[in-house]
Amino acid sequence: MIKALFFDVFGTVVDWRNSIAVEFDRLAKEKGLDLDGQAFALAWRRRYVPAMKVVRSGERGFVALDTLHRENLIEVLEEFGIDGLSETEIDELNRAWHRLAPWPDSVPGLTRLKKKFILATMSNGNVALMINMAKHGGLPWDMILGAELAGTYKPEPETYLTGCRLLHLAPEDCMMVAAHNGDLVAARDLGLKTAFIARPTEYGPEQKVDFEAEHDYDVIADSMEGVADQLGC
Question: In what order do the strands lie in the sheet with 174-178?
């Protein structure tokens, strides 16, 4: 009997690539820079997993994703030859991750699912980031869970299990919803139910994986509303 749905957010619920590209294109226009927002967004995102890997390995103590994003942003600005931004402007660009737009089906699907289940993030994003994103995009979460509360990043088991414990639920009472096979396999190995949503345009031309479900998950859909359909909402 599923009682709670845990959601990966970046890529599954929100379209980070196009959202970041729009923010950077706006800044580039203001500053007179002839640069590609899509290329900038992808370059920034490429540093995401390596930055978390250092924390997961124990080589570095836990720091919030906002901090990792800002450190990575400094590197990307250097890579693109962009200088002259003030600390305030860099901070504002870093907060672009707080303003990511949902995929068109996300809010309608989540609204349907909320009538039957507890909805919680299970994201590597820190709490403030997740709350601001929810306010910006109208995401109807009941609770913010994930890396910051567990003190480590997915796919470390403690991330998922901390969420279960905070809701006083057994893993089998929870379902992980994600567009990434690795995320779902990690959750399934801990006893959670799983739902795959295909987001084949998440990385645009750089997408190489996660075009489709690679395992026999409990739910396989091509939209959030498809998940709601299969779960009887």
Answer: 143-146, 118-123, 4-7, 174-178, 193-197, 219-221
Cis before 102? omega within 30: no
CA-CA distances (angstroms) from residue 4 to 15, 181, 223? 23, 20, 18
Task: Match domain 4-15+100-230 to its CATH number in 3.30.700.20, 2.40.10.340, 3.40.640.10, 3.40.50.1000.
Answer: 3.40.50.1000
CA distance 139 to 150: 22
Query: CATH for 16-99, among 2.40.440.10, 1.10.150.240, 1.10.3720.10, 1.10.3300.10?
Result: 1.10.150.240
DSSP result, 35-61:
--HHHHHHHHHHTHHHHHHHHHTTSS-
Question: In the block, which residue shows the tokens 């994600």?
Answer: 178
pLDDT digits (tens, 9 = 90+) for 65-123: 999 999 999 999 999 999 889 999 999 999 999 999 999 999 999 999 999 999 999 99
pTM exceeding 0.85: yes
pLDDT by residue (tens digit) across 13-67?
A: 999 999 999 999 998 898 888 889 999 999 999 999 999 999 999 999 999 999 9
